Amino acid sequence: VAGLGNYGLWGTRHSVGMEVLDRLARQLAVAEGWRVDKRCCADVALGTAHGLELVLLKPRRFMNLNGLSVASAAEIYNLGPEDIYLVHDDLDKALGKVAIKLGGSARGHNGVQSCISALHSNEITRLRIGIGRP
After folding, report:
1. Cβ(112)–Cβ(4) under 8 Å?
2. β-pairing, 85-90 with 98-102?
3. Where along the chain do its domains lie?
4. Strand order in the sheet with 52-59
5. Which of the chain's ends, N or C, has fewer CB atoms near its CB within 10 Å?
6. What is the dihedral of CA 66, 69, 73, 74, to 10 degrees?
7. CA–CA separation, 28 and 98 (whole Å)
8. In this structure, are strands 2-3 and 85-90 parallel, antiparallel, or unpaired?
9. Is there a contact between 73 and 83 (Cβ–Cβ < 8 Å)?
10. Do 42 and 58 touch, CB atoms closer than 8 A?
11. Which contiguous run of DSSP H or E holds residue 26?
12. Catalytic sites, residue numbers
C-alpha cells in the first residue's frame, strides 16, 4: 500500500495519501515501525491485516517521482502491479469523498502516471481521496 505525496510537505492536500498511510499504520499498531529503506528511497512499515502481510510505503520523493520508489519496493518485496494499492489525492472528487479504481489512465495525476510508467502497467488498484478544487 503506497501513499503518494510530496515527502516532507505534510498537511498539504496533495500529500493526503501519506496521511492515510500514517493513519493505517496507527490502526495496525505499526506506527512505531516506520523505517527508512534506502533501497527504494521510502519510509516502510510492515503490518498484518485479516491474515494478509502488508508493506506500507511512503516514497521519499516528490510526487512526480513516486513511481520510482513504488517500483523498487515492488521488486524488493516480489510484488506485481496487481498486488499494489495506491492511495492518492483526487482533485475531481469532493473533499472527503473516496473511490476505488482498478486500472485505466492516470487521469492527469502525476504520481499515478509515475507509478504506471515505472511499473510498466496500469493494472494498479487506486484509492482516490477527494480533495476538491480550491
Report:
1. yes
2. unpaired
3. 2-130
4. 35-37, 42-49, 52-59, 2-3, 85-90, 125-130, 98-102
5. C
6. 50
7. 20
8. parallel
9. no
10. yes
11. helix 16-27
12. 14
User: Residue 119: its pLDDT value, please?
Assistant: 98
Count, residues in the chain: 134
CATH number 3.40.50.1470 given to 2-130: yes
* Grid cell at residue 128: 482516490
What does the pLDDT look like over 33-77, one tens digit per residue? 999 999 999 999 999 999 999 999 999 999 999 999 999 999 999
* DSSP result, 55-122: EEEEESS-GGGHHHHHHHHHHHTT--GGG-EEEEEETTS-TT-EEEEESS--TT-HHHHHHHHHHT--
Residues 6+ apart with CB under 8 A from 41: 59, 60, 61, 68, 69, 72
Cell of 87: 492511495
Rg (CA), the chain: 13
DSSP state of 27: H
